[in-house]
Design a protein that fits this description.
Elements (H helix, E strand, L loop, with lengths): L5 E2 L2 E2 H22 L11 E3 L5 E3 H16 L2 H12 L5 H12 L5 H9 L1 H10 L9 E7 L5 E4 L12 H7 L7 E2 L3 E3 L4 E11 L6 E10 H7 L1
Antiparallel strand pairs: 1-2, 3-4, 5-6, 5-10, 7-9, 8-9, 9-10
Helix pairs in contact: 5-6
Length: about 220
């Protein structure tokens, strides 16, 4: 009768089996490391254009800790209230202004007003604050009730945000909520950003009167968390 040769206590067939189990274990571990943490849904992450995962909880923390407080600053509330007191623009007028803005055909005087108002200066101040020295905040801008820019830290790509999720979902028909958009490349800042929008509230009625959006630089934020 043939005898099966053993090496280190294993037969040839057993060695093949152990090797296959070891390889399978390595593959499973690698797969688990690339998959969302147990108990979390895929939706608990935002994904950068390069495929990097950004935990939603980390974004929500910074939104609640910093951005909500920024939006509650009196200079932000005041610029929104003043803009909302003006007669509402028609949709056609807004679209024409937006087109001229994108084509850079609006007056520089108007741009300077939005940049250098008390609110515009405040936005640049917080943009340069904690984390700002690393470029954490690509942009910050404030919108009134129609979704038009009323103050900004730097010139934005477009003027009207009223048809975009950053305004529509954050404004939520006046109820107001924090909205975290999908990561995307932003032309005005030339960086991949996640735009986080928070409501601007009337201090007396607590109703949403506008929206503030902060563009988080994905690369810098990934290093911070």
């Amino acid at each position: 009768m043939l005898k099966t040769r053993r090496f280190l206590g294993f037969t040839g067939a057993e060695k093949l089996y152990v090797g296959a189990v070891f390889l399978l274990t390595i593959l499973v571990i690698s797969w688990l490391q690339s998959y969302p943490i147990m108990g979390m849904r895929t939706g608990d992450y935002k994904w950068s254009p390069d495929g990097d995962r950004i935990p939603l909880r980390a974004i929500e923390r910074i939104a609640n800790k910093r951005f909500v407080a920024w939006a509650a600053n009196p200079v932000v509330i005041e610029v929104v209230q003043e803009a909302n007191k003006k007669p509402a623009k028609s949709l056609d007028e807004i679209i024409q202004l937006d087109k001229r803005w994108i084509e850079k055909k609006v007056s520089q005087e108007w741009i300077n007003e939005l940049l250098n108002s008390q609110c515009g200066r405040y936005l640049r101040k917080v943009q340069a604050g904690k984390g700002g020295e690393k470029g954490l905040y690509g942009e910050i801008f404030v919108m009134g009730r129609q979704g038009c820019i009323v103050a900004m830290s730097g010139r934005t790509s477009d003027y009207w945000q009223g048809d975009e999720d950053k305004f529509v979902k954050a404004f939520a028909d006046g109820k107001g909520t924090i909205f975290i958009d999908e990561a995307d490349y932003d032309e005005s800042t030339e960086a991949a950003l996640i735009q986080v929008s928070v409501p601007v509230l009337d201090p007396d009625t607590l109703k949403t009167i506008g929206i503030m959006t902060v563009g988080l630089n994905i690369g810098v934020f990934a290093e911070e968390i």
